[in-house]
Amino acid sequence: MKIKERYFAKQKLVKTIREGLTGASPAFAELLSDARVEIAKTEEGITLFLINGEPMIFEIEGRYFPTLKGLLEVAVDRLYVVVDAGAVPFIINGADIMRPGIVEYDPGIKRGDLVVVLEERHRRPVAVGKALCSGEELAEMEKGKCIKNLHYVGDRIWRLRT
User: Fold this and answer.
1) Distance CA 112, CA 130 (A)
2) What superfamily would CATH give domain 80-158?
3) Which of 63, 17, 64, 22 lies closest to 36 in space, CA to CA?
């Protein structure tokens, strides 16, 4: 992944990003405290927001959400699913998240939400995905795809060098 454009964000945009992150989880907005934010646009059309040169936030479907590197810096208390150890190797190769692998989840998840996928043992983020069903639907499901994998450990965003 190559960056084709890179420049500092204006304060108005930083405020908009902060509001978007706060809407997802107040903890996510902590990424922007006392930081100069750079915008990096990639050749693939992905917009990343760099803090201290690291891709900490990205824009997806018109929403702002922390990247995995950003999620390593904050507490994840909402919009999460926890997967068992057996699912992790598949997820970090880009596989979507299936119901049998989910051992815990935020019941407040709504269909279409961006969610953090945590591994069970250390509760560290391994992916960011889009919920294909709500928390209520997850409670009733026994099998099937429930999270579309959008960003995972080892992908192009994770490996980006600025």
Assistant:
1) 6
2) PUA domain (2.30.130.10)
3) 17
